[in-house]
Automatic annotation (TrEMBL):
Organism: Haloferax larsenii
InterPro entries in UniProt: DUF7984 (IPR058290)
Pfam families assigned to the protein according to its UniProt record, in alphabetical order: DUF7984
Origin superkingdom: Archaea
Protein known as: DUF7984 domain-containing protein
Boundaries of every DUF7984 domain copy: 1-157
Length: 159
């Protein structure tokens, strides 16, 4: 696999084109998590998703890594699927964390990936459902809407 600027641009467009599938998955994930944590979580619309995708791909170092994870997961298949279970899970977790923007949100995105992944099933290659779950987990973590993300942290320096 060779990642050129044109290849990264192609993956950027592919992730944008997934809005019809990923935005509902983001909101379903947020609804389920909100119920579990007894909180209301803001709804993500297509324009917020697209803006977040553009933001991720605007940073060259992040863009090339996200593009690589996406391209690998789009084509990853393992006969019988189960023997490849670990690799697609690892790639999905890392994609979600990279999209979220690093720790501490990256760790939260990795956990959310597993939560979203159990609800996603595709008929394509083994990596496709992990790819959708990773996009949903990463972008839902990155985007506002959680009450704990609103306002200043009580742990910010007061110097």
């Amino acid at each position: 696999m060779e990642l050129t600027p044109a290849a990264v641009a192609d993956e950027h467009q592919w992730v944008r084109d997934r809005a019809d599938d990923i935005v509902p998955l983001i909101n379903e994930t947020r609804d389920k998590l909100g119920d579990l944590f007894d909180t209301d979580v803001g709804v993500v619309d297509e324009s917020a998703y697209l803006a977040a995708v553009d933001d991720v791909f605007a940073r060259g170092d992040v863009a090339v890594n996200v593009a690589a994870y996406v391209r690998i997961l789009r084509t990853l298949d393992v006969e019988g699927d189960y023997p490849g279970f670990v690799v697609d899970e690892v790639l999905g977790r890392r994609l979600a964390a990279t999209i979220a923007g690093g720790d501490p949100l990256g760790l939260l995105a990795e956990a959310t990936f597993h939560f979203a992944d159990v609800a996603v099933h595709t008929d394509g290659v083994a990596g496709e459902d992990d790819l959708d779950a990773a996009l949903a987990a990463g972008f839902q973590t990155r985007l506002p809407g959680w009450s704990w993300q609103e306002g200043d942290s009580p742990f910010e320096s007061r110097l």
